[in-house]
Specification:
Elements (H helix, E strand, L loop, with lengths): L7 H4 L2 H8 L20 H19 L9 H15 L1 H10 L7 H10 L1 H5 L6 H16 L11 H16 L3 H19 L3 H32 L12 H10 L4 H9 L2 H7 L6 H11 L1 H27 L14 H14 L14 H8 L9 H18 L4 H12 L2 H5 L3 E6 L19 E5 L5 H12 L7 E8 L13 E7 L11 H4 L4 H4 L2 E6 L4
Parallel strand pairs: 1-2, 1-3
Antiparallel strand pairs: 3-5, 4-5
């Protein structure tokens, strides 16, 4: 998949680990700087870190002469996440009978969703959040025959909840209803209040133990700044404990402190509070979200009808809600996190991908989704093409091309200085260029969405830099803003067009898509500046 969904798929794990483990030139995001650590390092280490350590070991043992390259740097963490994604399949298969859903219908809905095919095969912390929700739902759901929960469940629930919280503090929004459901199950199944308290104490103690593990690992990492100095704290054990206490790092608290500030969220973009409900959910789940809304309204309507009947007849409280529209608890599992996440002004579609599990279980009950099969298939094919292939789809192949260029035999035999200027693209992950930190002959400049004047000024400055004799300047820019460079007063030796590339920030004009120049509107240009001119 060449599509580039969001910078966080690189800068929340692979980019950081490539710098720490492979000693490559990378861009460290602010969340991983020692002055403002907001992300735990544990999961990046366990995912991208493990895969990068493996390919590094293979190369050091001469089992693979060139294991470390742009392709393996991209694919190896994604392969691990793809393997992890089958936790969703196992969870759906196990949960379906309990929630009165057809297992195979639920599995087909899950596996055929472009959310699973695209988002869950990328290195997002949101994908891990979805896996933790799947594990939690399995742990809180008794077997088909009923009965009490097994003894280890309380401990495991505490560990999974704490781990999910350190991965993303928003996990508490997803975990709220499963935990309340578990608490209700425990309270109903146990006659002794002492046994109930015992279950809750086990949960709290295991959650606290897990939190201590994460805090210790993060404190070592962020106070030492890097794996090379991980064991640099010296002195007796008590001295070590004292130093760690002074420098203790609790990344979820820093995360919450930052994100609860409306000014900070506005820096990342503010959205109307209905964005998740009216836009992002439909973009991710299509007709399944609409069916869930319809079923929810029908359930509420029947409940209020029952309430009026009971009130009119003075028969006391209404009975349990009829299941004619499906299981209302699954709807709560879906809509309650949706409501909590909608309270924040910054709303991105990927924040909702954990909700696919309760949604497919609900949609697979009573053959609700069967009659919409053609729409579901077409929707997911289009979604997979758009986000998996087209969206910013030229940037990764561009980095592959540039990596081969700067590491070509000609470049190695005759060292040259390369300046790679990216404009109107997503942030390029430097790690895919496979440049060692000690290598200073390659410079990456990210202009983001700079205005025309700023862009031209920077390009002209690089083109007229006569202090460098053997310098090569490349400008990487989408075809939709290619014409901007004609006003910059520079010429180009050659240009390479990478197709396809769709920039939603600079979308193609519809008339151009029906002209002979349509391919350039859906492409990314690599322009080699002619400094001789």
């Amino acid at each position: 998949q060449a599509g580039y969904l969001h910078p966080d798929e690189f800068f929340q794990a692979p980019e950081v680990m490539a710098g720490d483990i492979l000693n490559l030139q990378v861009y460290y995001p602010w969340e991983f700087l020692s002055r403002s650590p907001c992300r735990t390092v544990v999961f990046p280490l366990m995912t991208s870190g493990v895969t990068y350590w493996m390919i590094k070991s293979l190369q050091q043992l001469d089992l693979c002469s060139r294991c470390i390259n742009s392709y393996t740097l991209l694919v190896s963490p994604r392969l691990l996440f793809t393997i992890f994604s089958f936790v969703l399949d196992c969870s759906v298969y196990r949960l379906a009978p309990f929630w009165e859903a057809d297992p195979w219908t639920a599995l087909v809905l899950l596996a055929g969703s472009y959310v699973t095919l695209v988002f869950y095969t990328r290195t997002f912390s949101n994908a891990l959040e979805g896996l933790f929700l799947a594990l939690l739902m399995v742990l809180v759901s008794p077997g088909k025959s009923g009965g009490s929960l097994s003894q280890p469940a309380s401990s495991l629930i505490g560990m999974v909840t704490a781990a999910g919280f350190f991965n993303r503090p928003t996990f508490l929004a997803f975990a709220l209803m499963p935990l309340l459901y578990w608490a209700g199950t425990i309270a109903n199944s146990q006659k002794s209040i002492k046994t109930v308290i015992h279950h809750f104490l086990k949960l709290v103690l295991c959650a606290c133990f897990t939190a201590v593990v994460f805090i210790t690992a993060d404190t070592f990492y962020f106070t030492s700044m890097g794996l090379d100095n991980f064991y640099s704290v010296k002195g007796s054990p008590w001295d070590v404990i004292a130093q760690l206490h002074e420098k203790m790092v609790v990344t979820p608290l820093n995360f919450l402190s930052y994100n609860l500030n409306p000014y900070n969220l506005a820096l990342h973009g503010s959205h109307p509070q209905v964005t998740h409900f009216a836009v992002n959910s439909i973009m991710l789940f299509g007709i399944l979200h609409i069916l869930a809304i319809g079923a929810g309204f029908k359930m509420l309507k029947k409940y209020f009808q029952q309430l009026r009947e009971v009130t009119g007849n003075n028969h006391g409280s209404p009975g349990p809600l009829a299941h004619s529209e499906g299981n209302p608890i699954l709807l709560l599992f879906y809509f309650v996190p949706l409501v909590f996440l909608s309270l924040f002004s910054h709303q991105e579609p990927r924040f909702l991908i954990p909700l696919i599990l309760p949604l497919v279980l609900f949609s697979a009950s009573q053959n609700r989704a069967v009659k919409w099969k053609p729409i579901i298939v077409i929707f997911n094919i289009l979604g997979a093409l758009l986000f998996g292939c087209l969206h910013q789809g030229g940037l990764i192949p561009c980095l592959f091309h540039l990596e081969q260029l700067v590491h070509s035999p000609e470049s190695l035999n005759h060292p040259r200085h390369y300046t790679l200027l990216f404009a109107h693209t997503y942030m390029p992950p430097r790690s895919l260029l496979n440049i060692k930190k000690s290598d200073t002959h390659i410079e990456v400049i990210d202009m983001a969405g700079s205005e025309e004047e700023t862009l031209c000024q920077t390009v002209e400055q690089q083109a007229n830099n006569f202090t460098c004799n053997d310098c090569h300047v490349f400008v990487i820019i989408p075809g939709t803003v290619r014409a901007t460079l004609t006003k910059c007063g520079v010429s180009f030796k050659n240009e390479t067009l990478i197709f396809p590339h769709l920039s939603m920030e600079d979308p193609p004009q519809i008339p151009f898509l029906f002209s002979g120049n349509w391919k350039s509107q859906l492409g990314l240009y690599i322009l080699h500046v002619d400094r001789d001119q």
